Amino acid sequence: MAQLNCPPCTPCASVCIEHQPIQTLFTSPVGLPASDPPPYLPQRAGNSDGYPLAKAMGPIGPWATGRVDWGALSGQTGTRPVVNQYSITRYSVDEWRQRNADTINACETTVDNSVQVENSSKNTIIRTYAIADKTQTDCTQSLHVRAKNIDNLKCELDRAISSMQEEIAALERQRRRLKQSLAVLRMPEAIANECLERRTGRPDTELIRDRPEEELIQEISLISEIKAILLQTLANIEQQQSDNRAVRQRMEFDWSEKKVAHENDAVNCNLRNQSTNTLFKPGATRCSNEQSTEIYWEKFTRETLDMFHNCRHKSEQLRNTLDAILTNAARDLRTQADSVERALATRISCMEEIREKMEIDLRTVLQRLADTEIQIDKLKVAIRNMDYAMMVVQTRLDNRNQRPRVENCRDQPQNLLIAEVKSLEVGTSSMNAQLKQEEDVKQELINRRNELEREIMLNLPAIAIDRDRCQLLRSHFPSSTALSGY
User: Residue 56 has what pLDDT?
Assistant: First the structure.
């Protein structure tokens, strides 16, 4: 409770009433029982409200002419002063006494009123100071609670900002990883296209749609699909990153405003009546149109935090989705690459086998061609040797036809010679037919040799393309780790 202290009196100021010495009245005041009133107050025989006058004031003597009449200057008597050459008297003794009584009564009334007003003012001061102290304490406590609430939300925003900063950094790392994966993806795409382009340079008979070509086309299709997915994911990440930065900026603005508000309320909480930095601010009680309500204040911060949680959840989902996409893409690409390499190895092995088989067949054909040529020569010699036997038998027959008359008979030797001629003709015809077959076989063997040599000649470049170029390119195919962006 405030204490009422009398301020120190200045040298030029009047002496305080409370500090003046009390003077003792030697006469009884009005209203107290006494034998006679004091001489300066109306007497019992006087003219007043309590004691009426015995007679009205008249002229002093016959020489003082004065007309008794009512006038404004006569006060309570209602008489006009009697003025002559000897006196300027305006009031009577009773009027003087009555005036003294009125002055004393008015003074006592004023003093009583001042005492009442002083007691009321003291009570008012005590009550006002108590109310002011309680109101100030309540306001200070409310400011402390408000500052605590602001600090709690500010700390929550600070944690959210730190968490969002970490999420932005993690998403940025994932974005760089995705871009690295896209950069690495150009290598398998170039390898697959190069392999297909190189395989178009195979000889005409080797231009077949084999298993390696199908696997390479499937690999190019898979790379195109993965590339489209990664590009779309990259666009989603960049959009999410923009949303994350916008939410972080909003939280930073809100945090900075709450920091200013917390510092302002902290200053207000420390203000006291003895503070030296307080001033009158006449317009401080006017509420600005831009002021928000406490409900909207908390709602705005909660909406910002809810936006942060939603944005962070989407960002985490996107990062997890990106991990799954990159892992699955690397696995699929590596699996397809293994399939292509197995198909190439199988195709190369098959072509090696067919080449070796063709070389073996070529050697067999060449051997058979040589043997056929030798046999043809033998048949020609044999056919030529049959001419000698034919000449012998024909000579014999011709000689026997020179026999005379009856001796020229168809005897047994004649029949045998004729049979021999037929047998020689049949044998010669058979050997000629066999010679013709041998020559046909020789020509067929020559054709087979030419075909085998051509196939081997065409097979070697195809094997060189798949083994020396495609497999060499496939050896530079990125690993799963590199395809994942690491």
Answer: 52
* Tokens coding 461: 């470049």
Can you tell me the distance from the alpha carbon of 401 to that of 410, in angstroms, rounded to the nearest whole number?
A: 10
d(C-alpha 149, C-alpha 158), whole Å: 14
pLDDT tens-digit series, residues 372-387: 999 999 999 999 998 8
Contacts of 444 (CB under 8 A, 6+ apart): none
Contact criterion met (CB below 8 Å) for 150 and 258? yes
Our CA dihedral for 410, 416, 418, 422, rounded to 10 degrees, sits at: 160
Q: Looking at the predicted structure, is the pLDDT value of residue 52 above 80? A: no
Q: Residue 467 has what DSSP assignment?
A: I
Q: How far apart are CA 410 and CA 187, in angstroms?
A: 98
| Cβ atoms of 43 and 97 closer than 8 Å | yes
In angstroms, rounded to a whole number, what is the distance separating the alpha carbons of residues 64 and 437? 203
The Cα 90–Cα 74 span in angstroms is 7
Domain residue spans of the chain: 367-471
Q: Which residue has the tokens 């390499």?
A: 341
Is residue 185 within 8 Å of residue 326, measured between CB atoms?
no
| Spacing of C-alpha 200 from chain mean position | 48
pLDDT at 208: 83
Global pTM reads 0.64
- For residue 126, what are the contacts with CB-CB under 8 A and spacing of at least 6? 1, 2, 4
Q: How large a percentage of the chain has pLDDT more than 90?
A: 43
The two structure tokens encoding residue 18: 């409370």
CA distance 191 to 196: 9
